[in-house]
Every structure is written in structure tokens, then in C-alpha cells.
Design brief:
Elements (H helix, E strand, L loop, with lengths): L8 E4 L4 E4 L7 H15 L3 E3 L11 E8 L5 E8 L2 E6 L9
Parallel strand pairs: 3-4
Antiparallel strand pairs: 1-2, 4-5, 5-6
């Protein structure tokens, strides 16, 4: 008997429900990144992950899933010349601000 690899689990902060996304299903966050990443790149931003931060890689760096001081997470934290200048938060298309 062989064991299947464990797929990603996500903890939803609002309801603290453990959600399981099988390997063939992408999470809503992954789907949003597929749309947002190319838009940021077209605007000249260099995309990076938290695990490989190099703020001097380019004048404009967009850091995915960045942690803020109060332990909040934002979808993207934008840096220009090494200074944080703003955030990008993905919302569903039907969501109004």
C-alpha cells in the first residue's frame, strides 16, 4: 500500500476552517496570482517570494504574500528602491470596495 502525498492545506482566518485543495485544484489565491502576476510584470515589477527576497534586484519589487509588522499578510507588498510604498490585495471580481 502506498501513501499519497499530502496536498496543500489552507487555514481560513475568518472561520478557522481547515480547507483541503487536492493537487489538481488550485486555491482561489493561486488563481488570482495567475491573473495579477502578469499584470505587475507588464508594468515593470520584479516578482519575488518571501523565501527569496532581494530588494536590490530591481528598482521595483513586488513581494508575494508579504507579512506586515502586525503579522497581517498582504497579497503583494510593493517596494521601490528598497522602500515599501504600497500593497495589492486581491478580491473577487464581483467584490465592490
Amino acid at each position: 500500500m502506498s501513501l499519497l502525498p499530502i496536498a496543500p492545506f489552507f487555514l481560513l482566518p475568518s472561520s478557522l476552517v481547515l480547507c483541503y485543495f487536492p493537487p489538481f485544484m488550485r486555491s482561489p489565491e493561486e488563481l488570482a496570482r495567475e491573473k495579477i502576476d502578469p499584470l505587475l510584470q507588464q508594468c515593470g515589477w520584479i516578482l519575488q517570494n518571501r523565501s527569496t527576497i532581494n530588494l536590490s534586484a530591481s528598482r521595483g519589487v513586488a513581494l508575494r504574500e508579504a507579512l506586515l509588522k502586525d503579522r497581517d499578510e498582504v497579497d503583494y507588498l510593493l517596494f521601490v528602491d528598497g522602500k515599501a510604498i504600497g500593497t495589492v490585495e486581491a478580491k473577487p471580481e464581483a467584490h465592490t470596495l
